[in-house]
Each structure stands twice: as structure tokens, then as C-alpha cells.
Design brief:
Blueprint: H1 3-16, H2 30-39, H3 48-51, H4 55-66, H5 76-98, E1 115-118, E2 121-124, H6 125-133, H7 164-176, E3 183-186, E4 189-192, H8 195-198, H9 200-203, H10 213-223, H11 226-231, E5 237-240
Parallel strand pairs: 4-5
Antiparallel strand pairs: 1-2, 3-4
Length: 252
């Protein structure tokens, strides 16, 4: 079993029976939620052309994010939810500023230079991601959407503190079962997302430096479907899928 995933799932489940039951979002996510409902389809692709006419609403949401009080006592679920929504909304705004584009990789400094006001701090997308990684729940990688086709699908709903555990588990399932994005089994070889290469320390047990077939089996046992688990039983070799940086645009 992958320790970090198991421990965090257990912690969030315990919170779900206590503190998490009373969790509140740090900012009102309803405006962001309504935009996602309208402009993101079931496969996670975004209607950026349509969203471009709603930039005022997105920016107003990010003003709330900028002014959020993170000094108040908050649960980890509340803080994780806040940063995930802040990251995904910031990515959308950054794309809209350059739209139409074919890929975020064509935008200089997209991840490591452009900064956003988040809870009184000026943070790049890389810095926002780092904030989430310190919370040691690898499932955040299934929730953060960088604007690329090989990213996990963008949910057509906002993340909320009181449903975060379910949402992360559902994102994990959707991502891992997608052979174009997550796990593709080819006979005795399995190809997994490059996300698992770039952030392997977040997914692998302590002291393990590379992916082995059993690690992929463990990953699927935690978060995937029984059919995928069965297909992985004969796997002997692990490789990584090519990452498609094409824009996750409905109108591409």
C-alpha cells in the first residue's frame, strides 16, 4: 500500500466523522462553481471562448481569494480546498489572458513567473502547488489542472471542504482509469502518467527511488477500478506516457 495515500485518506475519513462534518469553505466558491458547471464538460474540457465573456466573475472570485484570512483557525481540508480552487481558477485566468493559445507551455513564465494574490501572499502556480504538497496528500495531483490535455480532468464543480475526500477519491478513480492520461496496460508493460515520474516522492513509499510494477498495482488498489487491478496482475515493466501539453480546450 502507498503509505501517504492511505494515511491521508484515513485522516480525512476521521475528520469526516467529526471536524470535517462542520467544515466551511474559506471563501464563497459558489460563483466559481457556477462557471465550472456552465463551461466545463463531463470529460473535463473547458469552453475558454465562452469563459472569456465571464472574466469579471472569475476575477471577482480571485479578489476574494486574495483577501482570504488564512490566519484564522482552519482545518487541513479547508486549507486544501482553498488552495486547489485558487490554483485552478488562476490557471483559467492566466489562459484567458493569452487566449487563443495552443498550449500553456508556449507562455513564458506561466508556472514560475506570473504571480497571483492568494491569502495575502503573492504566489506563482509552482508556489501554490508547493503549498499543497506540504500537506502530504498525493491526491492533490489529481485535482490540480494545469491546462494541458494530459492533466487530470477539470471537475465541473468547485471543491468544497465538506466533500473534499469524496472529490479527491473520485478524481483519482477518473484519472487512473483513463488510459490516455493515467494508466495504460499493454500486455506485460504498463505506461503511467508522467505526473508519477515528476512527483514520485509524493506517491512512492519512503526510501523507494523508482516505480516498479507492484507500486502501480498498489496505486490501482487504492484508487482504481477492479478491472484495471486485474489487468495489472501480469505487468513486468513500467514506462511513462507521453505528456500532451495541448490546451484542454473544447474548441481545439
Amino acid at each position: 500500500m502507498l503509505k501517504k495515500l492511505i494515511l491521508m485518506t484515513a485522516c480525512l475519513c476521521l475528520l469526516g466523522s467529526g471536524a470535517l462534518a462542520y467544515a466551511e469553505d474559506i471563501v464563497d466558491v459558489e460563483p466559481w462553481h457556477q462557471l465550472l458547471q456552465r463551461y466545463v464538460d463531463e470529460s473535463g474540457l473547458v469552453d475558454y471562448e465562452g469563459l472569456s465573456r465571464q472574466q469579471k466573475t472569475i476575477r471577482e472570485f480571485l479578489v476574494e481569494v486574495a483577501h482570504a484570512d488564512l490566519q484564522q483557525p482552519v482545518t487541513q481540508a479547508e486549507k486544501m480546498t482553498f488552495y486547489i480552487n485558487a490554483y485552478n481558477a488562476s490557471v483559467v485566468v492566466a489562459i484567458l489572458e493569452q487566449y487563443p493559445i495552443k498550449s500553456v507551455k508556449k507562455v513564458k513564465g506561466f508556472f514560475d513567473a506570473a504571480a497571483f494574490d492568494v491569502g495575502g501572499a503573492s504566489l506563482t502556480l509552482d508556489a501554490l502547488e508547493s503549498q499543497l504538497r506540504t500537506m502530504e496528500d498525493a491526491r492533490v495531483h489529481y485535482a490540480l489542472v494545469c491546462g494541458a490535455l494530459s492533466c487530470p480532468p477539470l471537475r465541473n464543480e468547485a471543491y468544497r471542504a465538506d466533500t473534499l475526500d469524496y472529490q479527491l477519491q473520485d478524481q483519482a478513480r477518473r484519472f487512473l482509469q483513463d488510459p490516455a492520461r493515467g494508466i495504460e496496460v499493454l500486455g506485460k508493460m504498463v505506461k503511467i502518467s508522467s505526473i508519477f515520474k515528476w512527483y514520485q516522492k509524493d506517491f512512492l513509499p519512503d526510501g523507494v527511488s523508482q516505480w516498479e510494477p507492484q507500486h502501480v498495482v498498489d496505486l490501482a488498489q487504492n484508487d482504481a477500478h477492479l478491472q484495471l487491478q486485474e489487468a495489472l496482475k501480469g505487468v513486468k515493466k513500467v514506462k511513462f506516457l507521453r505528456y500532451d501539453w495541448g490546451l484542454n480546450d473544447q474548441n481545439r
